[in-house]
Design a protein that fits this description.
Structural class: mainly beta
Distance between the termini: 60 Å
Strand order of the largest sheet: 1-8-7-4-5
Number of strands: 8
Length: 110
């Protein structure tokens, strides 16, 4: 503003919203903005998913074409058996009830 006209700032209230970054995590770390973890990664069999916030979480496992191979819900943690999947890179999309969402790269090796 240069003082010659009307100037209005607009900062809408967040009403308890969480600020969650958007993107694909190569190696996610748990912090205030990312409550999710996935280990071991890379894996050849079982992988453990956790949500440090302890909230109900929806998960979707997608292949490199975007096709959903599996979907499931969990609270706090879940073990996922990926031994039947071919080696490669997959994307695990996670979303909890507070609206925090994350896409994590999962590598399956043999």
């Amino acid at each position: 503003p240069d003082g010659t006209g009307a100037y209005i700032t607009f900062n809408p209230p967040s009403f308890n919203a969480r600020n969650c970054p958007v993107g694909l995590d190569e190696k996610p770390e748990i912090d205030d903005y990312n409550p999710f973890s996935l280990y071991p990664n890379p894996t050849s069999g079982l992988v453990t998913l956790t949500n440090a916030s302890g909230e109900y979480t929806q998960a979707f496992l997608n292949d490199n074409t975007g096709r959903t191979l599996a979907s499931f819900d969990f609270i706090s943690s879940k073990e996922l058996n990926v031994s039947s999947l071919k080696p490669g890179v997959y994307v695990l999309r996670l979303r909890d009830t507070s609206g925090c969402a994350r896409a994590v790269k999962l590598v399956i090796q043999r």
